[in-house]
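Aim 2, interim progress: modelling of the heme C-bound target.
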Amino acid sequence: MKRSAPIVVSTVIILVLGIALIATLLFINNQPAPTRGITPLVQIAQMEADSHRWAVNYPNQYASLVQTAENAQRTAYGGSLPYSKLENDPRLVTLFAGYGFSIEYNEDRGHLNSLTDVREIKRVNEKTAGTCYSCKSSNNPGLWAEMGMAEYDRTLFSELGKHIDQPIGCANCHDAETMALIVTNPALEEALEAQGKDWRTFTRQEMRTVVCANCHVEYYFAGEGAYLTFPWKKGTRVEDISSYYAELEFKDWVHPDSGAAMIKMQHPEYELFTAGSTHYNAGVACADCHMPYTRDGAAKYSSHNVRSPLLDPEPACGACHTDVKYVVERVGIIQDQVWETMDATEEALVAAIETIKTSAEAPGVDQTLLEEARSLHREAQLRWDFIAAENSMGFHNPEEALRILASATDLARQAQLKAFQAAGSPGGQQAALP
Ligand code: HEC
Ligand code: HEC
Ligand code: HEC
Ligand code: HEC
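Predicted structure of the complex, ligand included:
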């Protein structure tokens, strides 16, 4: 017995080592193949609407997205406090007379509020098209795939709303499998296609801007089915957009005082920024300023707390500018200058509207000249609104903003002059002098 003890002990040791080796090999064999970047913890379904489900894999991105619900600070011209733009500047009530925006028009706020805010807008009624949900929910990519955009847009807002329970979320910007940035809005896909562009060939830096163009663009509802369309066929400059609408003889509403067929511009951030701005030409993307890199211990991630960079300029501007205080001051100077110029444009527009209205009531008014005055009013206000509805008070492209406002003021004064001429008033006679 005594002699066999070492044999038993070594057999046991060999057996234990053998089992341990087999177990280790099995364990290694059953590990997932090495991947680049973060290893997914859970499988996320394609177009998963619920951002909370993505949160398990990407807690920092999710937590920062959630912060967009809480921002409530105002800046000089922006910020996240939904104050009334109409109370702030009562001239807008005259400029948008006869249209929903003269009833309610509020400052925008963070992405997570999108669904609550669209449902509370007073401009929404029983006839409102489902299209209005296009930029408000992460349910959209799934719904577009399921029903097609034409059917989505044709469905009434009230009916479509039954299928929508999420605000803006991960599925609006990312492919769930690869996490790549993608174009999710079929209207953007079609608008790029109309210009002969395919976003699948874009660089990563280009996508960091184009992904915002899913929503931050000028658009209109085409035809009976309210088909979401970006007016980009001729280009994305304000003149291209204006001539596109003119060719189509499109109007959003008729101004009750001037009688002009009007266009309401929506938030054309993408169009203004990409119209040769200094930052765009230097290869800077929307995400560089609005989604700066942030640290969580060793991990670096893009802040998804998208908001005014002025609320925390250090990470937003400091990545490229050493003197952040200086560039932030420059923003203030640029915005004040754009606002002063815009103020003059609004004065000219209100004067044009009043003069056209008075002239239209004058006996023997020249209808041809009056029509010319109306079309000048439309063109002037469309240009002004391109800058007014854009949310950066000109900062995204200061030179372009000032150029457009100068042209808008000129067109508005021409409209007023034509209206004087139409009525044959002293102003008209004066204007006829060389
Ligand atoms: C160089 C930095 C920079 C880039 C690039 C940039 N922005 Fe901005 N953006 C700003 C600043 C500064 C403001 C002004 C914020 C304010 O007035 O509080 C602003 C304002 C905005 C606002 C309004 C914010 C608010 O507080 O209401 C929106 C929306 C916006 N940008 C979207 C975009 C989109 C979309 C792009 C790309 C097409 C873009 N920005 C590119 C710096 C940038
Ligand atoms: C409005 C568009 C938008 C939404 C919504 C959005 N993202 Fe992103 N996300 C971006 C952009 C832009 C980047 C930067 C990508 C790049 O640099 O290539 C990014 C980057 C990322 C990255 C890469 C790592 C990093 O932080 O740079 C991950 C992971 C990610 N997002 C997860 C999410 C998750 C999870 C959600 C939902 C909770 C979400 N994103 C919602 C636009 C968005
Ligand atoms: C799916 C549509 C959608 C996409 C994609 C999107 N946005 Fe927005 N964004 C909105 C809407 C809608 C609002 C206004 C929400 C509200 O006021 O309730 C908004 C608001 C904002 C604001 C104002 C936030 C505040 O607190 O005032 C900024 C800044 C902004 N977006 C920038 C961006 C940038 C930069 C991108 C691209 C990285 C982007 N957005 C992509 C729809 C979108
Ligand atoms: C990704 C890099 C990058 C980021 C981020 C960035 N900028 Fe710039 N900025 C540039 C470049 C490049 C130029 C042009 C070259 C120069 O003048 O330095 C520029 C120029 C400017 C100018 C001068 C513009 C002109 O037309 O003369 C101002 C003002 C400015 N930036 C403000 C800001 C502010 C404010 C922020 C943050 C909200 C910011 N930038 C974020 C790269 C950046």
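The first strand starts at residue 220 and ends at 222. The first helix runs from residue 5 to 29.
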